[in-house]
Amino acid sequence: MAGVLEVKAGNYTVRGISVGGVYTSLQVPELDAVFDAGITLRGFAGTDNVFLSHGHADHLGGLVGLLGIRGMMSKPKPRVFMPKAVQEHLDQALEHMTKIQRYDLSVDGVGVEDGDEHQLKADL
After folding, report:
1. Which domains are delineated in the chain?
2. What is the pTM assigned to this prediction?
3. C-alpha to C-alpha distances, 40 to 4, 9, 10, 122, nearest whole angstrom
């Protein structure tokens, strides 16, 4: 597996790894955001906002691991922005995984549709 890459884009740092059809996970620390969780990256676990582009495993397959690490760090549940069509299914999957893992994997889920706007931080 290749290592995590980091690039600067203006005032932002983009860290992550992506292998098309296998996994994608990107972090922008300045936004306190992870974009897709296709693979569990321990360094991303402290991030409080997760954006899932769609429901395929290569974009959310690492979410359970990420949530487990957050639990070990005593972090509150993250906000997870996802397509509205995915939200109910992901909530159910996390409920089942909570039973299997025996620790809380719940998230503050936000189902979004085209054109929706949500405040990420006080100034954004």
Report:
1. 5-112 (3.60.15.10)
2. 0.93
3. 12, 23, 26, 28
